[in-house]
Amino acid sequence: MTKFTLKEVKGVNQFIWILILSTLLITFGFGLITPIFAVFLTRQVTGGTLAVVGIAEMIYLATKSIFQIPISLLIDKTPGEKIDFYCMFLGGILITMVPFLYLFASFPWQVFLLQFIHGLGAAFDWPAWMGLFTRHIDKNKESFEWSLQTTLGELGMAGAAVVGGLLADRLGFKPVFLLVGIFSALTFLLLFIFYQKIKTEK
């Protein structure tokens, strides 16, 4: 078995680190609410049932799945990487809107609309992110860097699940949704760092 050292982590290029950290922020943010989302819908939404929870999740996944294929084809056919930035920017705006708007959601149709917006945002963001990660990954470190991204993201979600549950239990759902929105917005800072790296692209 190959010995793991910090040298492997230090050898990851800066571009990949920016992408990993952006994912960590967004997964930690939404990880705060994901484990208790069903409880929120059934307790805080008028007419919220377990069926509503299932439909809401279906809308998010179906929207993301349907739209991300044509969006990914558009990205691949467009020269350069600015298209990736624009897709991530648009997706980021849509995704960041969702937790703040959930503060005002009272009925199932509003939840369904927000899940559609979230899915559309993810459909713009995720293909662009994967394309950038794939193109900038360090040679002969593909498995390690993909695993590093997945590991940090899942550890972030694990920690967020505990924090989100404790916060919702003590303070209610609104502070949790606010934190989700704040963490989502922070990804914009990393997004603009990324843009600085490609704005001189010809």
TrEMBL record:
The keyword Nucleotide-binding does not apply. It is found in: Cell membrane. The chain crosses the membrane at residues 12-38, 83-105, 111-134, 146-167, 173-195. GO terms for cellular component: plasma membrane. Residues 15-202 form the Major facilitator superfamily (MFS) profile domain. SUPFAM superfamilies: MFS general substrate transporter. It is a multi-pass membrane protein. The keyword Transmembrane applies. It comes from the Bacteria. GO terms for molecular function: transmembrane transporter activity. Keywords: Cell membrane, Membrane, Transmembrane, Transmembrane helix, Transport. PANTHER family: INTEGRAL MEMBRANE TRANSPORT PROTEIN, RESISTANCE PROTEIN MDTM, PUTATIVE-RELATED-RELATED. This is Major facilitator superfamily (MFS) profile domain-containing protein.
